[in-house]
Write a structure and sequence with these properties.
The complex is a heterotrimer. By secondary structure, chain B is α+β, with helices and mostly antiparallel strands. Chain B has 21 helices and 29 strands. A five-stranded mixed beta sheet of chain C has the order 2-1-5-3-4, sandwiched between helices. In chain C, a hairpin with a 2-residue loop joins β3 and β4. Classes of the chains: A alpha+beta, B alpha+beta, C alpha+beta.
Chain lengths: 286, 806, 170
């Protein structure tokens, strides 16, 4: 299949992109990052935008920088770069570990962190680690304005985020989690299928004790969810399999998973506890 | 480009792991897929398809589409003459079979989601697709028929009201009535009242599968010559030619069909399709070349599906394990229409439920049912995977009921190697086999005893990862087929195959085959046969196929028939060449033909050093300056082989799975198969066929599911939702062979194309059920998704003992 | 219908064309440039049959717009063979019977080459994950994995082995 016809703009600055967005008026616009989710949708003609704004030529949206207590990742940084980038591996390993599991190599070469977050597919993988690591989403609007939204407020609903009309997600600011262990435990039907359930865990072990723990869930609701009960149950406990088993039992608390042919609500709740246990064990190196 | 191999050509070709000739073009992108074809003035088609499973069409407005840029025309069913003609079903299994008319474009009513309701022809594919979106169709949708059992119930809505029923046909084989055995009903009834007997009843579901060949179907029709040329991504160019003539009224002699490079089929391209007819009708009407290439989404809903049966099985046995009777009651989902062999697919399994076991009594009863789903037809194995699954699952069930070791129970009941040829309870004669040998080899490669020990240990320590061992000791009937047998089953057509060999004056050899490869490697394999037979170089043999003008006689490739019918024909044609050449050679050598020996491409006068080469004879018969009186120039020859029997490959497949009892995830740890496919022509190609077959059979067990929602919409309608396994989802395989030559052909070969698929599905399911035996799990519906596996564990009560199988 | 100009280098040849923005790179390669060695097998970026190298990295050309490729260097299956010599990966696919119908083969070879460029000494697990974006329906992947292992072994030897082939590629 071939997409419906559309106009195409490839601005070279964020400001130009925002200007295009502002001037689009009533036209249906799609902003394209890596295009790996958007193009199949357009090919199947499930969407037919009149204008596609391609962010691919905006150099300022690429790259990773050290900003003191945080790593700042440009929205157009590809999954493959998130996997490899030393700064991210050192300070936000959970993002790298998760990005490694996204789709397949070809899609990781094109797909971007910002695109995945802004797409906000509940089965998408990058939301949970961003949420777990308390990432801050940097959202731009016309005139050089920037606002920062914490991940927990960013994901609003199914395929819906805090990015408003006329705004763009331009960067993700991830507080440094240097020295934390990290793991993303994912379950899907076949290798390249979407996650049925997945769990992102980052753990800091200090002297045999779990000093800090952050856990977030993929596809256990319309948005990524933090497993606060698990985190609270882990902190201060000895880094043992038993501590993890007890804590993981509450992973499904406060979740509202959907049912589909691959997994119903009951199975998803169960998987959340099992996968949380495995993710935390791996992250803690137990 | 030719890849130069640094290998000698004096080695015997038969049995040699020749690398494929076909590869040179395929690995460089120098390929001719149908969709690659561009012709001057070519028009492109787009189909408008029904989103509804069952609806009448109240109106179609094509005005906006017709006015769109580049659009040559838009046709609905009533507007395209010839589209109302029913597509053929070549296998009316009973005289009273109910068959709906299957128009190539809907004529006022649709019976499945995906059915074509209009077609657009335009300058480009994109213009056609854009215009197709502008066609406005008013549907009055009605309640679809989706469940086979409900379809047969009183008061069900009807898929085709004019038929008055959703039942296509009921077909019965009873060994008592046929005189090939006793009455199964009597055997089962006797067992029910006999304290020394046991009756095992099971219901298994064969889910719907989608062949999902990698190359979407495509057809190009060029009417700008004296013959109308059709290129199509098909397994069956010869069928397409005949049926195109019958359906469109164009004389067969005016139609040429070419299957160029074809990207896989697996039965899915064993079809004569609405899309082929529409493309032909429009090219003929417009007078310009026309192309239609389906998208993957279209392919998923409109190319025929496979499997989809409900199996009700009853087996009786003595408590000592000896089987005494088997009764099979099937429901088979035809979908909305009948394809070329749809009604016969279950019948291809009818004679295989008894498999390698000595059942004295057998009954098979199948009812084919219409539903508002995509039509079903052949998919790799076609009938035999279903049969093999049922019997191999049943043997495990019987072993479990009797507390017997499952392999040992099989051995008690199978035909021993001394008993061949063996005439079965279905009346088939298995020509050769050695189940003991294949099983012994497989069990050794698998380390059967070691894995059983590990299984016991894991059960003992209640390991969350349990180990299961699955057995499948299969046989199948393939090499379709003896024409007389096909006739007795009411199949419209024969099962012979044709080959011709042309000896060129320059010493090269052309082999024309009626088979139509689409990945099997016939160019390589047939070259090996001829190189050996004629003593010419492998590289000097050119194999021509897939074009009805080049290869006028043939019945194409499916049913693991190519080598055992078509390859044998090639060999017979080579023998005829030798016999023709012998006469000329005798003349030139001034000897009696009876005194000539032919070996390694040379005729030698026995007991002398006088000899002449086949190449010399080929040229002498070309220039014809000095031929014996009454001998025509030329030593080309043709042969047609009609096999006297089916081919019965067999083997033992063993699968070890690790079942994560916490998540329900199944991982194949070890897969060992030892297949006996008779004499092996090319082991490299054979192993490739087995590997691919295993992948498809495993995919049925674990991954694939052509599932519909309640409205009759295929939910697995893309490769993102229909779960074909990737490399990460499959293991490496251990394959080996035993060799018991077939006696039904002089090469001793048996078919291999479907064996892996037929055997592997029950091996995997048996393995997972075995892993969960301590929970009392007896069956898991396919595909065995993590959720299904986990739910079975949840719903089962853990048994008090840790051991499952004895 | 507006068009945009794109300039790309494909298999060593520079092309400048006006294309509709909605034109997929795969269709541009096939229909405008005649690079029909690259095929399209699905519409959900699942099968990977259309895989090419875009500025040295494997991508699914059905999920890239031709306009996005403006200014890029593209290699297709047809650009691997130079001066009659097969790429070692092509040779390995042939030697190991890693293809049957051949439809997935161009994409599979392009993905496998990219895999080895990132990971010259992959384990079987690495290989299986590295080609998981490419579906094959014929081989069960068994011999594809073997071929990639063979190519990796060959690559790790000091000099890549040149393979002679006669004839030329168009």
């Amino acid at each position: 299949m071939i997409p419906s016809t559309f106009d195409y703009e490839a601005p070279t600055t964020v400001e130009d992109a925002l200007t295009l967005l502002a001037s689009a008026g009533d036209r249906e616009v799609k902003v394209m990052a890596g295009g790996q989710s958007l193009l199949p949708v357009l090919r199947l003609r499930l969407a037919a935008p009149e204008l596609v704004i391609d962010l691919g030529k905006i150099d300022e949206l690429r790259g990773v920088s050290d900003d003191g207590d945080a790593v700042v990742i440009g929205a157009m940084t590809t999954h493959d770069d998130v996997v490899r980038e030393p700064l991210i591996r050192q300070h936000a390993l959970l993002l790298s570990a998760t990005a490694q599991t996204v789709a397949d190599p070809q899609i990781r070469h094109r797909g971007t962190l910002g695109g995945a977050l802004a797409h906000a597919d509940p089965a998408g993988d990058m939301g949970a680690p961003a949420l777990a690591l308390d990432a801050q989403m940097v959202i731009a609007s016309l005139g050089g304005a920037r606002r920062t939204v914490p991940a927990v407020e960013f994901f609003a609903d199914l395929f819906s985020t805090a990015v408003g009309d006329g705004e763009l997600l331009v960067a993700v600011r991830v507080p440094k989690h240097t020295g934390w262990g990290a793991h993303y435990e994912k379950m899907n039907r076949v290798a390249q299928a979407w996650s049925m359930v997945a769990v992102a865990a980052a753990v800091r072990v200090d002297g045999g004790t779990i000093a800090e723990a952050k856990v977030a869930l993929t596809n256990m609701g319309v948005v990524p969810l933090r497993a606060h009960a698990v985190e609270q149950a882990l902190v201060g406990r000895p880094a043992t399999a038993e501590s993890v088993r007890v804590a993981a039992a509450s992973a499904a608390e406060g979740t509202s998973p959907m049912s589909d042919g691959n997994a119903d609500e009951e199975f998803r709740r169960h998987l959340a506890t099992v996968l949380t246990g495995r993710a935390v064990l791996a992250a803690a190196g137990i | 480009m030719t890849i130069i191999e640094d290998s000698p050509t004096t080695e015997r070709e038969f049995g040699r792991a020749r690398k494929r000739k076909e590869d040179a073009r395929l690995i460089t992108g120098r390929t001719k897929w149908t969709d690659n074809i561009q012709l001057p003035g070519m028009l492109h088609l787009a189909m408008v398809r029904s989103p509804y499973a069952s609806a009448t069409i109240s109106a179609i407005d094509t005005s906006e589409a017709k006015a769109a840029s580049g659009v040559v025309g838009v046709w609905t069913g009533p507007e395209l003459a010839g589209s109302e003609t029913g597509l053929p079903c070549a296998w009316p299994i009973t005289p009273d079979m109910k068959a709906p008319t299957h128009p190539s474009i809907a004529q006022g009513r649709v019976a499945f989601a995906g059915e074509i309701v209009a077609v657009v022809a335009a300058r480009s594919a994109i213009d056609a697709i854009d215009a197709a979106e502008k066609v406005i169709v008013d549907y009055d949708d009605t309640t679809p028929v989706l469940d086979m059992e409900q379809a047969l119930a009183e008061g069900s809505p009807l898929v085709h009201p004019e038929l008055g029923t959703n039942k296509n046909a009921t077909w019965i084989f009873d060994s008592g009535e046929a005189g090939t055995g006793d009455s199964a009903d009597a055997a089962i009834a006797a067992a029910r009242t006999d304290p020394d007997s046991i009756v095992v009843q099971r219901r298994y579901r064969q889910q719907r599968l989608i062949p999902a060949f990698m190359e979407p179907r495509s057809t190009v029709v060029d009417p700008t010559g004296e013959q109308i040329t059709v290129w199509s991504a098909t397994q069956v160019p010869h069928f397409v030619r005949i049926f195109m003539a019958l359906v469109t009224g164009t004389p067969e002699s005016k139609i040429r069909v070419i299957a160029p490079d074809v990207g896989g089929g697996f039965g899915g391209k064993l079809q004569f399709t609405p899309e082929e007819v529409i493309t032909f009708l429009l090219a003929r009407a417009i007078g310009k070349p026309v192309k239609y290439t389906e998208s993957r989404s279209e392919s998923m809903v409109s190319s025929h599906h496979g499997r989809d049966q409900i199996q009700q099985l009853t087996l009786s046995a003595k408590r000592d394990g000896t089987v005494t009777g088997l009764k099979v009651e099937l429901l088979a989902d035809m979908g909305a229409y009948l394809g070329l062999v749809s009604p016969g697919v279950p019948i291809l399994g009818a004679f295989m439920f008894n498999s390698i076991y000595k059942f004295p009594a057998y009954r098979f009863e199948c009812t084919n049912v219409f539903t508002n789903k995509t039509w079903t037809d052949a998919y790799r194995g076609a009938g035999r995977p279903e049969a093999t699954f049922a019997i191999e699952r049943l043997m495990d069930a019987l072993a479990s009921e009797l507390g017997r070791e499952p392999m040992e129970l099989r051995q008690q009941n199978w035909i021993t190697h001394e008993e061949f040829p063996f005439t079965t309870v279905c009346g088939l004669t298995y020509d050769s086999g050695n189940y003991e040998a294949a099983t012994a080899k497989a069990m050794e490669l698998f380390d059967y005893d070691g894995l059983r020990r590990e299984q016991a240990e894991r059960r003992e320590r209640r390991d969350p990862i349990q180990l299961g061992i699955g057995i499948s000791t299969f046989t199948e009937m393939c090499g379709l087929a003896p024409s007389r047998v096909l006739g007795s089953l009411n199949y419209v057509g024969g099962g012979w195959e044709n080959a011709a060999i042309r000896m060129l004056p320059t010493g090269k050899v052309e082999v024309v085959t009626g088979t139509s490869p689409h990945g099997q490697g016939h160019e390589t394999a047939w070259s090996q046969i001829v190189a050996d037979r004629l003593g010419v170089a492998f590289e000097d043999v050119e194999v021509l196929h897939g074009d009805t003008q080049v290869s006028p006689r043939g019945l194409d490739s499916y049913g693991s028939r190519s080598l055992v019918v078509g390859g044998v024909a090639v060999s017979l044609a080579a023998d005829k060449v030798i016999e023709k050449a012998r006469v000329v050679a005798a003349h030139l050598l001034e000897a009696s033909p009876d005194d000539l020996e032919f070996a390694a491409g040379n005729f030698t006068v026995r007991g002398t050093d006088q000899s002449t080469s086949l190449a010399t004879i080929a040229f002498a018969s070309f220039d014809a300056h000095n031929l014996p009186d009454g001998i025509e120039p030329g030593i080309d020859a043709e042969a047609t082989f009609d096999p006297p029997n089916f081919s019965y490959p067999h083997g033992t497949h063993l699968c070890a799975t690790e079942v994560d009892t916490e998540t329900g995830v199944v991982t194949i740890r070890t897969y060992v198969c030892v297949d006996d496919i008779g004499t092996v022509l090319n082991p490299l190609i054979v192993e490739g066929q087995v590997h691919g077959g295993l992948a498809q059979g495993i995919a049925q067990a674990l991954y694939e599911d052509g599932v519909y929602d309640d409205s009759g919409t295929l939910t697995a309608a893309s490769l993102a939702t229909y779960h074909i396994p990737s490399a990460s989802d499959l293991p490496s395989f251990t394959t080996d062979r035993t060799v018991t030559p077939a006696t039904s052909n002089h090469l001793g070969v048996k078919g291999v194309g479907e064996a892996g698929t037929i055997a592997s599905t029950p091996a995997v399911v048996n393995s997972v059920v075995d892993a969960l035996a301590p929970w009392g799990v007896d069956d898991i519906e396919m595909p065995m998704t993590p959720m299904r596996v986990w739910k079975m564990i949840q719903s089962a009560i853990p048994s008090s003992t840790t051991g499952g199988n004895a | 219908m507006s068009t945009r100009s794109v300039t790309v280098t494909v298999d060593g040849v520079r092309y400048t064309d006006d294309v509709e923005p909605r034109t997929l790179l795969a269709h541009y390669l096939r229909e405008r440039l005649g690079k029909v060695g690259t095929v399209v097998g699905c519409d959900t970026s699942s099968c990977g049959a259309c895989t090419v190298h875009l500025d040295g990295r494997s991508v699914k050309s059905c999920s890239v717009l031709a306009v996005q490729a403006d200014g890029s260097d593209i290699t297709t299956i047809e650009g691997l063979t130079t001066n009659g010599e097969l790429h070692p990966m092509q040779r390995a696919f042939h030697d190991n019977h890693a293809l049957q119908c051949g439809f997935c083969t161009p994409g599979m070879i392009m993905a496998a080459i990219d895999l080895l460029s990132n990971n010259p000494d992959p384990t079987e697990h690495d290989i299986r994950e590295g080609i998981e974006g490419n579906l094959c329906r014929c081989t069960g992947y068994h011999n594809i994995v073997k071929a990639v292992q063979a190519a990796a072994g060959q690559q790790s030897e000091s000099a890549p082995q040149a393979v002679a082939a006669t004839g030329g590629v168009a």
